[in-house]
Each structure stands twice: as C-alpha cells, then as structure tokens.
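Contributing new complexes? Match this layout with dicarbonimidic diamide.
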Amino acid sequence: MITVAAEPFAYSFPPGKTALIVIDMQRDFVEPGGFGETLGNDVSLLQAIVPTVAALLDLFRRKGWMVIHTREGHKPDLSDLHPAKRDRGNPSLRIGDPGPMGRILVHGEPGHDIIAENEPVPGELVIDKPGKGSFYNTPLEAHLKANGITHLVVAGVTTEVCVQTTLREANDRGYECLLIEDATESYFPAFKQATLDMIRAQGAIVGWTAPLAALEAAVG
Ligand code: C5J
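Output block (do not edit by hand):
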C-alpha cells in the first residue's frame, strides 16, 4: 500500500488496483466558445489546472498505472439527451446547436475533444457519458470490475458537477476515492471549496482530498 497525507486523514491505496480518472477536460468546458462559456462562465478559471492534470497523468503513465478519461456529450441525433438537460437554464447556445467549435457537446465535434495538453495516449480508456456522473449509462463499472480496480484517484472539471457526481456514484459502489485538489476546478471558487469540504466531512463520507504534491511525495 502507498499512503498519502490527505484530508481528513491518510489515504492508502494499492497501486495495482488503483486507476486515475480524469473527468471532462474537454475543449467545450475549458476553451472559449464552448458549452461552459455559453452558460456565462469565465473558462479561464479552469485553465489553471491544465498543467497539474498533465503532471498527474505523467505520474500514472510513468508508473504504468491505469488511466481513464471521460467526456460529457451526446450522440449526433441527440437521442441520449433528456429534454430536461437540453432545456434547463438560459444558455446562449444549447446542446446540439452549432457554435465556434462545432455542435455543442456532440460526439465527434471539435469542442467535444479532450484538450491537447491532457489528451489520452493509446491504450487509455475514454468513456463517453451522457450525464454528469461517469457511471450513469456507461461501461465504466464493468471495466473497473474486470480489471480488479478498488481505488480511484480523481481529477478534472467541474468540481461540484461532474467530479462530485462521479465521486458520489463511485463511493456508493464501494470505491475508495482520492480527489486531487489542484487538479480539479470550478467556474465558482466557492463551490469548489464547498465540494472539497463536503467530500471529506464526517470522516471522509465521500472520500479524501490531497494536493498533487502529497501524492507525488508518497509515490516517490
Ligand atoms: C458541467 C461538467 N458542469 N463536466 N459538466 O456541466 O462538470
């Protein structure tokens, strides 16, 4: 076991049974002109974690540990998009509408791609998910079970939406989860802080959090 100095107490993980899951580091969330910006958000806030996510990916690749990426998005015919998701809010462009990076949050469009700095390398699983959680309507759980994964290190965007939903789904399925604090970000700094607090409250009710430096120090 490797033990990381984490909150609310030390997090231990078995390297061969631990996967990194990087959530939705897509152009549609991180770059101007995508889904995030159509909702009125300042996407530059998310760009701050790109180097940390890249360093975390490097660490797992150097060690030969499993890496999984997710992408939020929908089929071109939008048959997997609930009206509730399409119609909610008052964005300047809705999911499926044409924007500067192609149709918003649609498979195969430039905006749906993972940003170049964090892109998958051959052999890494990419999970396409229609919801906020990474387990809903995806093959993620079957893949983790088939590979004997029991622990998840989690990164990506946005902290209080797809990251937190995935952590809660994973926690309910028995996975021990560590969220890397400086490898996750929100358009709302207060929501990020609240999410970190909620996850590790009540004796790690959802999981643990730690900065990347703590994981690096533990791994050596
Ligand atoms: C959102 C996500 N915020 N990846 N998606 O709609 O968090």
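Reviewers usually confirm one structural detail per submission. For this one: The mean pLDDT is 97.
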